[in-house]
Write a structure and sequence with these properties.
By secondary structure, the chain is α/β, with parallel strands linked by helices. About 25% of the residues lie in helices and about 20% in strands. Helix 1 (about 45-55) crosses helix 9 (about 280-290) and helix 2 packs parallel to helix 3. Bound molecules: S-adenosylmethionine and iron/sulfur cluster (SF4).
């Protein structure tokens, strides 16, 4: 469906849970979240109906996210149900990867086409500090498993945090070139009422490029600008919602785990889809698409975004 600013909205991001097995300090409160009343979180049939309504309006690409989508009970069954919906062309997954090991075959069989893996540090100590956890991720094993199952291109997403992981950019570039995969650096966004100093940890693409002159601009693709090191096959992407917003390319709508459509990640506007029949659901999706703003106002400090990212879906 075309929105009022002539953008073709064909992509739905579905958050399937607010819960997570990590506590990344910029995303989630350290104490975790209150156990949601069962009724607050959309059931499988609600999500399936919502996806059918979206497909009815021409949204055909679905991404499952969260919280951590793989902690939702019955997630593989839900993926199968979504992939059986006529008109769904692709289902992808954004995950922290902790529950991925030895599960890629099952994930692919359920219907997932591609995986974006969130990984902010290659150093175990830094990973633990960022994620407020005591675990580490065997990312080499996961990347190899994804390659073995032909789930390409693999995209690793790292939120760059000044003073914390910005000195690992070279290591991430090497990782991208070792496996010929994409590593995308995401700018930190001031979202939710979390206790971190945004200005201290924000770092821009310009600062990174200055430190890594080997990176050569290759192409702009949708929301990311891609760079490569000449002679190498890895792709280094920059996603810069803050310093260079890509709202004119925005083709997405978001559905939160508690049943709200968000026309824009970066505004507080949301529309409930709970307890609607199918026709009402389609109308509500239409309304949400009509309400997509021309561009976000994240840089406007007077308008903070209330929901933290684990409650939106990234
Ligand atoms: N748990 C899954 C994961 O980490 O991939 C899916 C949900 S997570 C909210 C999706 C993405 O949002 C992650 O890549 C995460 O790093 C990113 N994210 C969360 N809070 C953010 C923030 N304040 N600024 C930029 N990216 C953020
Ligand atoms: Fe969990 Fe993903 Fe948020 Fe980290 S970024 S706390 S892994 S939802």
């Amino acid at each position: 469906m075309i929105d009022p600013f002539k953008r073709n909205i064909d992509y739905l991001r579905v958050s399937v849970t607010e819960r997570c097995n990590l506590r990344c300090f910029y995303c989630m409160p350290e104490e975790g979240i209150k156990k949601k009343e069962h009724n607050d979180i959309l059931r499988d049939e609600d999500i399936v109906n919502a996806v059918k309504a979206a497909v009815n309006l021409g949204l055909k690409k679905i991404r499952l996210t969260g919280g951590e989508p793989l902690v939702r009970r019955g997630i593989y069954e839900l993926i199968k149900k979504i992939s059986n919906i006529d008109g769904v062309e692709e289902i992808d997954l954004t995950t922290n990867g902790l529950l991925l090991k030895n599960q890629i075959k099952r994930l692919k069989a359920a219907g997932i086409k591609r995986v974006n893996l969130s990984l902010d540090s290659l150093k175990p100590d830094v990973y633990k500090a960022i994620t407020h956890s005591n675990v580490s991720l065997d990312y080499h094993a996961i990347i190899k498993e994804l390659i073995a199952h032909d789930m390409l291109p693999i995209k690793i997403n790292a939120v760059l945090l000044n003073g914390i992981n910005d000195n690992e950019v070279g290591d991430f570039i090497e990782l991208a070139n070792t496996y010929d995969i994409h590593v995308r650096f995401i700018e930190l966004m001031p979202i939710g009422h979390l206790n971190f100093n945004y200005n201290t940890h924000f770092i821009s693409k310009a600062a990174i490029l200055e430190r890594h002159p080997a990176l050569q601009f290759e192409q702009k693709h949708k929301i990311a600008e891609y760079y490569t090191v000449p002679g190498k096959n890895g792709k280094i992407g920059f996603i810069n919602p803050m310093s260079n917003h890509f709202c004119n390319q925005c083709n997405r709508l978001r559905l939160t785990a508690d049943g709200h459509l968000k026309p824009c990640l970066h505004t507080n506007e949301e529309i409930s889809i709970k307890h609607l029949d199918f026709n009402e659901m389609v109308k509500t999706f239409e309304k949400a698409i009509h309400k997509k703003p021309e561009k976000h106002r994240l840089n406007d400090k007077q308008r903070p975004i209330h929901r933290s990212m684990h409650k939106i879906g990234g």
